[in-house]
Design a protein that fits this description.
With 147 residues, this protein is an all-beta fold. The protein has no helices and twelve strands.
Length: 147
Amino acid sequence: MGMNPLLECAAACAVGMILISSADAAEIRGIGNKCLDVRGGILGNGVQVQIFACNGTAAQRWTLVGDEIRGLGGRCLDVAGGNPATGTPVQMFDCNGTAAQEWMYMDGSIRGIRYQCLDVRGGVIADGTPVQIFPCNGTAAQRWTVR
């Protein structure tokens, strides 16, 4: 249809969820207008996800497939080890359908395992700051826009 990927939603929009079409990759921007980024553009399991100055590379392009957020090489945004503990790092991993890879975009936050939020560690806006899961608190470290 060629619409903006953020506008392609059905009933989910009524509850504040925004769907990213699998046909259209988008940037996910957070604190300091930095992009969600696969560290070093490295293709592999366990590669840390961070924020970095937006540069248009494949390491910063994301699609939603069901409840998975897929990035570089079609790998999924994943909570390391499926560990729901506060501060667990977020990484890239082969998609496997586990709760560690289930995400939803709701009211400006990205919520994952046990409804914790995708969070920029310490709210630091420096390039290379890793992302983690953290109890949702409404801070700028947990606010995301999809473009």
